[in-house]
Amino acid sequence: MTASFVALEDVCKIYNQGQPNQVRALHNINLVIAANSMVCLQGASGSGKSTLLSIIGCVFPPTSGRATIAGKALSRMPDRFLTIHRRNTIGFIFQHFNILPDLTVLENITLPLMPLGIGPGARKERAERLMEMLSIGHRSNFPARQISGGELQRVAIARALINDPPIVLADEPTAHLDHTLSLAFMEIMRELQRAGKTIILTSHDPLITQHPAVERIIAIEDGEIHVP
Amino acid sequence: MMSFARQANIIDYSLSSLWRRRFKSLGVMVVFAGVIFLLASFQMTTKALTNAASDILAFAPEITIQKMKAGRQESIPLEYKEKLAVILGIRAITPRIWGYYFNETSGANYTVLGLDPFSMPLGDQLGEAIDTGALPLDHEAVLGQGVFAELAGGGDAVIFSLFRPDLSLKTFSRAGVFKAETNILTYDTLFMNLDDARDLFSLPADMATDLCVTVANPNEVQTIAKKIAALLPDTRVVTRQQIQKTYQGVFGWRSGFASICLLTALAAFIIFAWDKASGLTPEERKEISILKIIGWQTSDVLTLRFWEGVTVSTVSFVVGYTLAYVHVSFFEASLFRPVLLGWSVLHPALRLVPSVELGETLLILCLTVVPYLAATIIPAWRAAIIPADSALN
Amino acid sequence: MFLNSWSLALSLLSLVVLILIAIAVRTAIKVLCSWDPASDSNRQIRLENETWLSSTLVQYAMGFQIMSLILFVLAADYFSQVISGAMCATGSLAANQYGMPTLQLKLLGAFLSGFWIILHAFDISSERYPLLKAKYIALICLLPVLAADVVSQTLYLANLKPDIITSCCAVVFGEGGESTGNLLGAVPQGALLTIFYGLAALLAIAGYFLRKNPRSSLLWLNGLVWLLYLGVSLVAITTIFSSYIYAMPYHHCPFCILKPDYGSIGLLIYGTILPAAFFGISAALAEVIPVRLGIKEVVHRFQRMAVLISSALLVLFVLVVSYHFVLYRFMGGE
Fold first, then answer.
1. Identity of the residue in A16, A76, A79 whose CB atom sits nearest the CB atom of C42
2. How much is the mean pLDDT over chain B?
3. Could you report the per-residue pLDDT of C91-100, keeping only the tens digit for each?
4. Are B38 and B265 in contact, with CB atoms under 8 Å apart?
5. Contacts with B389 from chain A: Cβ below 8 Å
6. For position B46, what pLDDT does the model report?
């Protein structure tokens, strides 16, 4: 599984470069995340944590430095190719889940497959397998706004996994969940790790940071990796 | 990239997305359908009127000869007929009196048509245009619907009188009424015998207003017209085709002028559509950023917007066009009649038959859908470039 | 003669196309001046976004240009009812010296914007956008063609005058009616037919081999023959095939076949020959792309597809265009 590998060398990110409101969000980040591991990024808001997550998540390339995500160097890759790499490599689970409330559970889960030209039959088949695994199969045709928080979270997980990405990124996944659901979430992450995925989380929640499955905590402060 | 399956998926999504925002979409569609309705009704009315006019013009003689003096038309002596006897290919020459009678009580101008229906080769076809009654005999006249309504007050009066130039009265009895289908040409017409018309206008006995020439071979019309013009240098020679084209020109001009007014409405709609497409709600922005971060390309979002535009246009077009058809054929284009038929005090009440042709449809499509789609490109692009990372915050 | 719906629609359509391309050209100039793939500045990000706008604009413009082409021919047919002496679209187009050039410019505009879209597809197939500069220079070159189209069309419409029945010249005006306006003089039929079917056979055979093995020299030759064949078939449609469709030996018109009176068969005829020639020629033009850019794989895939499409459309075209001809010549009768 060498493909599921994140390597950042001297990565910098500067917003609004060359303008008065220039912001240096990341400064000389060097970071290696091994395949099939589970790590947690930690940092206050404004620390550069989200920027780092975006670079690892192939949302935008770094301003300078080398970022190699799953065997591919991102440096100054045009957005079009970044998107292709992102959808093949990364599964996102967002803080607020970012589920479209008016679509059904099935529609939400298969959303990433639409631009790939996968037909409705194949889409449904793939989604059903995941929904079965996450026990939300009975909710398939419910509008997302009608289901509970715990189910919503599993819909978000199913959508992240629909394209079978080697890396799963979860941004503050338990911030809006109670204790039981948070534990359940970590169980699922652990299962995924066992299945060979690389899991990268961001969180302040001790339930995650102190979870036995989390192998490493990476602390970010002022755009740099903080070594305690 | 270009795969059909991808397009099909995006169409699928665009339909569901329009349905989810159906109230917002409906607003645009209603206004758009309204604009299409106006333009299409207008185009159909003009087209139907032109067709009706040329159908009836088919009755007109192939060549008309009028005598000119000082650049104005005057009566033509019947002896001119003999001068033309040398031209081969002329089947018949019939004198005709075509004049206007001003009715002072109503302020309307009637067209008086005097000819001998039995000597004219196509005269029997005039009979077909008569709804009730028969061709006029001595001291009889066939009335257009409008004239009939005015002179007979819609009742069944049979006898009525008109003034000669010296204000003496001339009395006619009604022989019949023209059919409503021919209203565009016959609405204000009084059709009578040659002698009666001559009497009404006090023309000398050997005079007419023009001579109608019927030609045996239609291909020779131009040649014969040229020969007549050479033989009778003081006349104007007009062919049927030319009259038809003048009508077309007038209709075309009128419809073009009105189209400019309608284009103003279109412009207003385009601004409205631009505004609607630009104003994204926070939910819509959120949706696009989610789509983008989970792997939709900028081009996928642009494609999505394209199909939404196509769907809105198609629905509006079908609705607007259908309504226009109904308006023109069942409500007789009541909105546009005053503009198109306004040259006469008597407005013909004409039954219009709109035709649906590929060209006409494409014309309306180009005038409405193209500007709409063009106006939504930039707003669609602005939406499509919403950065993916805005979904992370 | 602007004050009628057809002229207004044509003017509107070409202006829209021109405006869309002008906006795209604005991006093209900006890209040519300050594109810097290594930069992460806001300006570069904005430019990257604008490249999406420009390609979308050209795609719409091509669609509208095709509509404009069809509308122009249909409008010419409508004008023939107004212009003295014109019996059909041929007569209207010949009514002044701008008619035919406008038609040709419209066709050229549609072809060129199509070529540009292919170029764009090649360009964005590689992460390095290797054709970026070439693509935007080409886009700038497209603008004068479309501007010429607008100017020529405007001149055509301005000089189109329906004649009023004037006192003196009524007959003289009508004179044009005698020349039923055949676009082309007598062409030896037998020779033309031989060339027409000979080239079609040649292109079909070339297409078969090229799909297996797209060799450069053969592709070029194929493209050239396609260009030639486009010309030959347009002449053949006008002078030979059309009159069999009309079942009138002296009616040679390339436009009336578009009318519903003849089942709009012309739409199918032009709807096959024009795209077939487009793909045949673009397969050859794609050879211009240097191997060193590293997108040869994409280019080859396109060429195979283009050759396949053009061959298929060619077969369909020959079948459709020959239908009435064969029916009349060999079966005898309608």
1. A16
2. 82
3. 788 778 898 8
4. yes
5. 50, 54, 59-60
6. 78
B174: confidence class by pLDDT, cuts 50, 70, 90: confident
Least Cα separation, residue C318 to chain B (angstroms)? 25
Q: What is the average per-residue pLDDT within C206-225?
A: 87
Give domain limits for chain B: 4-55+247-391, 90-215
The number of C-alpha atoms within 13 Å of C161 and in the hemisphere containing its C-beta is 5
As a whole number, the mean pLDDT across chain A is 91
| Residue A6 near residue A31 (C-beta atoms within 8 A) | yes
Characterize the bridge pairing of strands B159-163 and B207-208: unpaired
> What's the distance, CA C127 to chain centroid?
32
> A175-224, pLDDT tens digit by residue?
888 899 899 999 999 999 999 999 999 988 888 989 999 999 999 999 99
Residues 6+ apart with CB under 8 A from C245: C257, C262, C265, C324
The interface pTM score, or ipTM, of the predicted complex is 0.94
Nearest CA in chain C to B230: C171
DSSP for B98-156, written as a single string: EEEEEETTTTEEEEEEE--TTTSTTHHHHHHTEEEE-S--TTEEEE-HHHHHHHSTTTT
Pairing of strands B108-114, B235-239: unpaired
Chain C nearest-CA distance from A118, in A, is 21
- Strand order in A216-221's β-sheet? A90-93, A167-171, A198-202, A38-42, A216-221, A224-226
Please report where in the chains the tokens 């009566």 appear, as a residue. B75
Q: Which of C13, C81, C82 sits opposite B370 (nearest CB)?
A: C13
Interface contact B392-A114, CB threshold 8 A: no
Alpha-carbon distances of B156 from B151, B152, B162, rounded to whole Å: 10, 6, 17
Which residue carries 């239609």 as its tokens?
Answer: B218
Residue C293 in contact with residue C130, Cβ under 8 Å?
Answer: yes
Across the interface, which of A19, A62, A64 has its CB nearest the CB of C42?
Answer: A19
Which residue ranges form the domains of chain A, and what is each CATH number?
6-226 (3.40.50.300)
Q: Is C294 within 8 Å of chain A by CB?
A: no
What does the pLDDT read at residue C171? 34
pLDDT at B350: 53
**Residues of chain B contacting A115 with CB distance shorter than 8 Å:** 6, 9-10, 295-297, 300
- Taking residue C290's Cβ as centre, other Cβ atoms within 10 Å add up to 12
| Tens-digit pLDDT profile for residues C66-118 | 999 999 999 988 887 777 656 677 778 877 889 889 999 999 999 999 999 99
